[in-house]
Amino acid sequence: MSSGKEYIDQMLQKYKVLMVSKSTSPDGTKAQVIFDHYRFDKGDYFFIDIDKRADCDEIEQYLKELSGTSTVPSIFIDGKYYGGADDLIVGQKLESFDQRLKDAGIKFDRQPMH
């Protein structure tokens, strides 16, 4: 069985957009609501709920190494740390999140938020 670090590295290589969070995180829920308005090509986006993993603590420690923060969600675009929920909320409003996706060559369709 691979370590939590290896698992995250594999997911970062496999998916163009990755969100790592906990089901108990209010910020994770906010971010997921925003992501629900994006349609990515099949296989480009993946969500990991680390609450359900035995290596949750190890993954959290590794996320801190990658991002400099221990809060979730952690959002990655093209293998690079983008930010957390607040960054996503602001980026989505200013469309800088959309631009970052485009710059990474990620195809998506954004549904209007009500």
TrEMBL record:
Residues 17-81 form the Glutaredoxin domain. Pfam families: Glutaredoxin (PF00462). The keyword Transferase does not apply. GO terms for cellular component: mitochondrion. The keyword Membrane does not apply. Keywords: Electron transport, Transport. GO terms for molecular function: glutathione disulfide oxidoreductase activity. PROSITE patterns: GLUTAREDOXIN_2. It comes from the Eukaryota. PANTHER family: GLUTAREDOXIN-1. This is Glutaredoxin domain-containing protein. It comes from Panagrolaimus davidi.
